[in-house]
C-alpha cells in the first residue's frame, strides 16, 4: 500500500488550518469569556469578603456601643438610685427636724399655757384671799382695832409728814384746808390724839375738819390742799399683794436660772 504524501500534507495543512480557526474563532472567545467570568467571580468574592469584613466591624462597633450604653445605663441607674436614696434621707431628716421643732414648740406652748393657767389661778386665789382678808378685817373692826389704826396713823404722820408740813397756801392767799377722813367714826379722845399730832405738823392756824369716808375696810387719811397721808388696811393688803406678785414674777426666772 503506497502512502500519498500529498494527501497527507494536504490533510495536515487542513488540520492545522482547522486548529487555527478553532483557536481564533472558538477557543479564544471561550477562554476570554471564562477568564472574564473568573475575574468577575473573584471580584464578587472579594467584594463579598469586604462586605462581610465591614459587617463584622460594624457588628463589633455596634456591640461595643451597646456594651457602653448598657454600662452607662447601669451607671445612670446606680447614680439615680443613690441620688434617690440620698434625697430620701435628706427628706426624712428634714421631716424629722420639722417634727422635732414642732414637737418642741408644742411642748413649749403647752408648758407656757400651763404656767399661765397656774399663774392666773394663783393670782385669782391671791386676789380672793386678799379680798376676803380685807372684808374680814372690815367686819371684825372694833374699838381696839380702830385705836391701833389711829396710833399707826399718828406715828406715820410724825415720821413722814414733812411734805405736808412744807405746804404753802394757794395763790389767792387762802388758808390751808386740812381734812381727816376715816372709814369709822372717831371717838372724842381719838379726835384729840389726831388733832394734836396734826397741829404739831402744820400748826393750829389751819382749819381742820373730820369726815367719815364711805370706802370699805378700815383706814384713815389726812389731806392738806390735795396732798394726802393715809393708813389703810386695804393699802397694806395691796402692798402685800404687790409683793406676792413680784415674788411670783421673779420666781420662774430664778428657777430657770437654777435649772440652767
Topology diagram in text:
Blueprint: H1 5-140, H2 143-160, H3 162-165, E1 178-182, H4 188-202, E2 208-212, E3 219-224, E4 227-232, H5 233-259
| Overall shape | rod-shaped
**Spans where pLDDT lies below 50 across 5 or more residues:** 168-174, 253-260
Count of β-strands: 4
Indicate the multimeric state. single chain
Q: What share of residues are in beta strands? A: 5-15%
**Tally of alpha and pi helices:** 5
What does the main sheet amount to? 4 strands, mixed
Order of helices and strands: HHHEHEEEH
Helix/sheet category: alpha+beta
CATH architecture of the domain at 143-167 and 174-259: 2-Layer Sandwich
Order of strands across the biggest sheet? 2-1-3-4
Q: Ends: how far apart? A: 157 Å
What is the CATH level 1 assignment of the domain at 143-167 and 174-259? Alpha Beta
Amino acid at each position: 500500500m503506497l502512502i500519498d504524501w500529498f494527501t497527507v500534507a494536504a490533510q495536515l495543512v487542513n488540520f492545522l488550518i482547522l486548529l487555527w480557526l478553532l483557536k481564533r474563532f472558538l477557543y479564544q472567545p471561550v477562554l476570554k469569556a471564562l477568564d472574564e467570568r473568573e475575574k468577575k467571580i473573584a471580584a464578587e468574592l472579594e467584594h463579598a469578603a469586604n462586605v462581610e469584613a465591614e459587617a463584622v466591624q460594624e457588628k463589633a462597633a455596634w456591640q461595643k456601643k451597646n456594651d457602653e450604653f448598657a454600662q452607662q445605663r447601669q451607671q445612670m441607674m446606680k447614680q439615680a438610685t443613690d441620688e434617690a436614696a440620698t434625697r430620701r434621707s435628706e427628706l426624712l431628716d428634714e421631716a424629722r427636724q420639722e417634727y422635732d421643732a414642732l414637737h418642741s414648740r408644742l411642748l413649749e406652748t403647752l408648758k407656757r399655757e400651763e404656767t399661765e393657767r397656774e399663774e392666773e389661778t394663783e393670782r385669782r386665789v391671791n386676789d380672793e384671799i386678799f379680798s376676803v382678808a380685807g372684808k374680814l378685817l372690815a367686819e371684825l373692826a372694833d374699838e381696839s382695832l380702830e385705836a391701833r389704826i389711829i396710833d399707826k396713823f399718828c406715828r406715820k404722820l410724825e415720821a413722814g409728814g414733812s411734805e405736808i408740813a412744807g405746804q404753802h397756801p394757794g395763790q389767792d392767799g387762802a388758808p390751808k384746808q386740812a381734812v381727816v377722813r376715816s372709814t369709822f367714826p372717831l371717838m372724842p379722845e381719838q379726835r384729840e390724839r389726831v388733832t394734836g399730832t396734826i397741829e404739831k405738823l402744820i400748826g393750829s392756824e389751819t382749819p381742820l375738819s373730820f369726815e367719815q369716808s364711805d370706802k370699805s375696810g378700815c383706814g384713815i387719811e389726812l389731806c392738806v390742799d390735795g396732798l394726802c397721808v393715809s393708813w389703810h388696811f386695804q393699802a397694806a393688803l395691796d402692798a402685800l399683794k404687790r409683793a406676792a406678785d413680784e415674788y411670783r414674777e421673779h420666781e420662774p426666772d430664778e428657777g430657770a436660772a437654777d435649772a440652767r
